[in-house]
User: What shape does this take?
Amino acid sequence: MRLVVAIGWIMIFQTFSTQSEQQPPGGVIAGIVVRARTGEPIAGARVLAQPTTPPRPTPGGAAPEAPSMPPAVTTDGQGRFAFKDLHAGPYRLFIFADGYVRHEYVPADQTLQNVRVLLTPAGNVSGNIRDLDGKPLAGVPVQILKPVYNFLGDQTLQSAGAAVTDDRGEYRVYWVTPGRYYVLAGSAISARRAAMPGIASPNEVPGHSVLPTYYPNATDLSGATPIAIQTGTDLNNIDFVLERQQARRIRGRVVDAATGKWPPVATVRLVTRSAIGGTSARESLQSYNPVDGTFDVRDVPPGPHQIVVEVRSPGAPGPPVTPPIVPAGAGQAGSITFGGSRALVTAAAQIEVQVGNEDVDNLVVTIGAAGSLPGRLIIEGASTVSGADRLRVQLTPLLAGAMQGPVPVPANPGGTFTIDNVLPGDYRVQVAGLQADFYLKEARFGSQDVLNKPLNFSQSGPASLDVIIGTGVSRIEGTVIDERSQPVRSVAAILVPDQLRGRPDLFRNVTTDQSGRFRMEGIAPGDYKAFAWETLEPFSYYDPDFVRRYEQHGHPVKVSESSNQTIQVQLIRSGQ
Assistant: This one.
């Protein structure tokens, strides 16, 4: 499985590099690493064997003891490798070789003498970037980007490789996993290599940049043409013609919606979102002029940005920064952590700005005051129910880091709640504490559905938020089996809704135990399909197009209220 977070890789390498414990005599895993399609042995491949047995409890309440990891091995001239004297238990193999796609393999048994691992040759991409006069552009970053989904179910882009143009305007991105990608030249966050100390030439001309452009010539992903990187081949002539551009300025005026005048003090922040997620923010008190309400943000690189204006209350602490709730569909893959509190923001606004080859002038930003949002938390079928006291209604800003989010709140005994300090903007409605006892059935802001769409808050919007919680949750138990009807351990069993595939809270992602069994809880009524892939890109099951390709391999499951059922799920092999 490829659902291994980055920290897991760090632990793998730290574990094998510091291993000093002598393994007692035990099992053997041996085999050969070969090139896919040709069967040619691969010498010098690095092979790691990671125990997947859960940590053993230790006496006295100390931290559980993780199984020790044998030292890594390297394939010989015939591509062969062997791990000897292994502790009893299941293992997962990780195989690396220069010029090939990293591979993960789960042996069927602890003692296995004839493992055959096929590595796929990677591909390479190259091209040339010139300006409108045909001159080479040096120091332009180039990224190979793959559309992916994050743990929240949001589509984003993931870097599969990167390079920087040299003095001839040429770039080459090597050892890219075969597939379909987008190519982006330039970056609104680090538009030139000069932002990378120790890499750029000190003689590069400062102060000019290029507009971030997707191949062949689009400023937005919707106008881009994807490229197909084939196995073991070079894809050449992915060229760009770009215009040299200077850093620009964004100038405008701040207006208070309540008074029609400018505020006596305000903070203007430039927020830039990278193509692969994350934001970079820059603010300056000198950008705002309290005499006439104007602002001037300088040295803005070309590309998409946001101007965020905030009026803060001096000395008053704002609410703690609350991370988004990890939906059940993300499994145990992790979460986001944020820093501490900021000063209390009493009014704010944010506006999208596209910076091109000219300064942006006469921008009007109308700020609105923070308000209170009343609502009702309705639990179906019961006036009082065990566990309801742990439920918290949460509004999460859609763009993390751009706006201050309010504190999650519980409901009063009568089911009412009030969320204070809600700034104008778009939010995702979430409920914390659902666990296995409840599911989020409906959320309405006035007459608007805000469970499947964002909640847009303003002082002139609907008066109340109704959140309806269902209690008729169900449980599914099952086993993942292979083509020999043998149970498969340590793979992810995924439950995908048939209809509402934009709702990550309806998905389930659990890992099979040593007997290949799994249990899913807290499932809302509806129609689903259960899947189990041998290898899987993180959160790719959120992609409707990906799931559609395997629809016939899914196990249909009809879940009624408060039901329990047992199923068998067929393993989907890599390349199937």
Remarks:
- The first strand starts at residue 27 and ends at 35.
- The CA atoms of residues 103 and 212 lie 33 Å apart.
- Confidence is low (pLDDT under 50) at residues 1-24, 190-197.
- The first helix runs from residue 6 to 18.
